[in-house]
Amino acid sequence: MGTIEHAENPAADQRTAIAVLTSGGDAQGMNAVVRAVVRTAIGAGADVYAVYEGLQGLVDGGERITKFEWGSVGSILHRG
After folding, report:
1. Environment class of 46 (CB within 10 Å of its CB; exposed 0-12, middle 13-18, buried 19+)
2. Burial (CB count <10 Å: 0-12, 13-18, 19+), residue 62
3. Most buried of the four, 24, 34, 41, 64, by CB within 10 Å?
4. Contact at 8 Å (CB) between 64 and 57?
5. What is the DSSP letter of 6?
6. pLDDT of residue 78
7. 3: pLDDT confidence band, cut at 50, 70 and 90?
8. Which has the closest alpha carbon to 74: 43, 35, 40, 30?
9. Of 56, 65, 77, 60, whose CA–CA distance to 20 is shortest?
10. Sign of the C-alpha dihedral, residues 63, 69, 71, 74?
C-alpha cells in the first residue's frame, strides 16, 4: 500500500477561537453546558469568547464580546 501525503495547512499555526452565545432565555442546565464548553476549549488551547445579547451582540461586537478565562465560569453553576 502507498502512503498518504497530507497537504500543508497554513492555518495550523493559528490559534483556534470560538464564541459562545445563547438565546438568553431560561434553560435548565445551560450554565453547566457553557462552563463545560469553555473549560474544554481552553484546555484544548482555544481562545473562547462570550457573546452577550445573542446574535445581536455578535453583529454589534465591541463590548458585547469578551474573552472567557478559566475562572470566568467558576461560579456560574448556581446562577439562574
Report:
1. middle
2. exposed
3. 34
4. yes
5. P
6. 76
7. low
8. 35
9. 65
10. positive
The predicted pLDDT at position 62 comes to: 95
Which of 54, 20, 44 minimizes the C-alpha distance to 34? 20
- Single-letter code of the amino acid located at 35: R
Cα 75 to Cα 65: distance, rounded to the nearest angstrom: 20
State the cell numbers at 34: 457553557
Q: Where are the domains of the chain?
A: 15-71
The span from the CA of 30 to the CA of 20, in Å, is 11
- Cell numbers linked to 67: 474573552
- Closest by CA to 79, choosing from 42, 44, 43, 27, is 27
| Res. 15: pLDDT tops 90 | no
What average pLDDT does range 52-77 have in this prediction?
A: 91
For the question of whether the overall pTM of this predicted structure is more than 0.85, the answer is no
